[in-house]
Amino acid sequence: MSRILIVEDEPVIRTALRRLLERHGYQVAEAGTVAEAQADHDLPAFDLVIADLRLPGAPGTDIIARCEGVPVLIMTSFGSIQSAVDSMKMGAADYITKPFDHDEMVLVVGRILSQRRLLRQAQALKSDIARDYPVSGMVGHCAAMQEVFARIRKVAPTDAAVLILGESGTGKELVARAVHELSARHDAPIIAVNCAAIPENLIESELFGHEKGAFTGAVAAHRGLVEAADGGTLFLDEIGELPAAAQARLLRVLQEGEIRRVGSAHVRRVNIRLIAATHRNLQQRVAEGLFRSDLYFRLRVMEIELPPLRERGEDLEELAQFLLTKACRRLNRPLMALAPEAVALIRDYAWPGNVRELENALERAVILSDGGQITPELLAIENSPRPALSEEPLSLEEYFRRFVLEHQDALTETELARRLGMSRKTLWERRQRLGIPRTKEHT
Ligand SMILES: Nc1ncnc2c1ncn2[C@@H]1O[C@H](COP(=O)(O)OP(=O)(O)OP(=O)(O)O)[C@@H](O)[C@H]1O
């Protein structure tokens, strides 16, 4: 619902205008002067400000500079063309002469608000393009990816919170953007925030905003990213990293639709859809007391789990070809093909960094390539499968244990030793020391 502030000193006109706008579904606030508007309201939080030009104290146009881009509609007195022109020069979105016709006012307000929506959309689109996210370009035919697509389609039209799970680089942000694109909110912005990338002491004010003087260095009030996503979608990547205080504020946003800036006693209403993602086991973080269980239960209503790349079977080759074409286009190189040995290598490798790692390997190969083919050497990946990386870096022993347990049924002992870069004797000795006996006899 769009929020409009009326700044008008004549109570009769103010009330009439308020009723008119409320009848058309707008949420309306009032002030009698520019000073009052500034003291009592958070101007950038409105979608439109309608101000009378002639007010006690400062003129209505003085509010334009304080609105941080929120459009201002100026009401001028009948016949005063010069003041209308001056208002436009000062940055007003439009002007309307008093006494105004009700239909005309509703029309002008509707037009300014739809222009604002378009502008926000364009800004969101611009940042999308900058990040190069092909929202609808998701490759995936395997059963697990088909299940992912089915869930995206099912959950998108609802307003339910979504939790996306998957190893790093599996496409979690891409899924979040697809959910937003297929939702009723698609013409409002999606604001993507990586919780792990913001220092812990800044995250609350980045997300929820702060008031002037809320902490040292807070020289001006600041609107947080949650408010910026109002009407649209907030995508919190790596939500498992959110500190406890921010978790509590976020819960309030989800439960009550309310937000309180850091250092403020004032509560604002916000309407966001939350999509969260993590590569961590959130349930375990709840058990460890690091993540609030009530927030976890709200988030997990709808889960979408992305399979790691090594479990996507035939998709791997198609995805590699798709990403190769994308890299060639981006780098302005003629289209290239994958040599059969490169395809075999890609299939054999465990891709701990998933799609992003594959994308990077292909991009590097395109840059290095002189011909029209990507050979295994250009991919510069080890041609032995590896266990996936876990959250913590693996110790050598743990690496060894996982590798053996994962591959011992498929490989002979000789092959296993060769891939681990050791002799059969060393493999046997290490098995004994770590207590990983052989499951069956291999030659
Ligand atoms: N199914 C897919 N089809 C095509 N491209 C994909 C697919 N999945 C991921 N990608 C590409 O892989 C890259 C990584 O995807 P994305 O950033 O969505 O992963 P992520 O899981 O959010 O990563 P992280 O956990 O590191 O935040 C992006 O460039 C994305 O376009």
UniProtKB/TrEMBL annotation:
Any one of the GO BP annotations: regulation of DNA-templated transcription
One GO term in the molecular function aspect is: ATP binding
* Listed Pfam families: AAA_lid_14 (PF25601), Response_reg (PF00072), Sigma54_activat (PF00158)
Spell out the CDD domains in the cross-references.
Answer: AAA, REC
Does the keyword Transcription belong to this entry?
A: yes
Modified positions (4-aspartylphosphate) are: 52
Q: What is this protein called?
A: Fis family transcriptional regulator
From what organism does this protein derive? Sulfurifustis variabilis
Where would I find the Sigma-54 factor interaction domain in this sequence? 138-367
Instruction: State the Gene3D superfamilies in the record.
Output: 1.10.8.60, 3.40.50.2300, P-loop containing nucleotide triphosphate hydrolases
Q: Where is the Response regulatory domain?
A: 3-113
The record's keywords, sorted A to Z, are:
ATP-binding, DNA-binding, Nucleotide-binding, Phosphoprotein, Transcription, Transcription regulation
Keyword DNA-binding (UniProt)? yes
Q: Where is the signal peptide?
A: none
Taxonomically, the superkingdom here is Bacteria
**PROSITE patterns reported for this sequence:** RESPONSE_REGULATORY (PS50110), SIGMA54_INTERACT_1 (PS00675), SIGMA54_INTERACT_2 (PS00676), SIGMA54_INTERACT_3 (PS00688), SIGMA54_INTERACT_4 (PS50045)
